[in-house]
Design brief:
The chain has 124 residues and is an alpha/beta fold. It is built from four helices and four strands, in the order E-H-E-H-E-H-E-H.
Length: 124
Amino acid sequence: MTLLMKGGLGKEFLKAFAISGARSLAVIDRDLPIAVQACGEIRDAVRQELGVPEDEISEVNAWGCDVTNTDEVRRTVEDIGAKFGGSIDILVAAAGMISKDLDSSQVFVRISRSLSIRSITLRG
């Protein structure tokens, strides 16, 4: 089973899937170092929860991808499919943006960008 997620909230979903026995996991974040860090946190969570050695933990891989860019999303999905030898079985689209210091002049732009993240679809 191949699972595809974003970091952040998606990371928590991936932890649960990994602890439940999923074997192939993909973490996507706009910033690759964040995705790599999430992979380590997922492996650590499985190790702590199940007490299993490293070689029994799900394969967790990181990809950097700006999910507002359709071409980049398409390439990333193709790369993940090639890596895991098939299709993606489960996709949890948990991408989103939060900003602490948002002034009123930026509200529309930020909301618009957040909605565009959630509305991208892959075609064909």
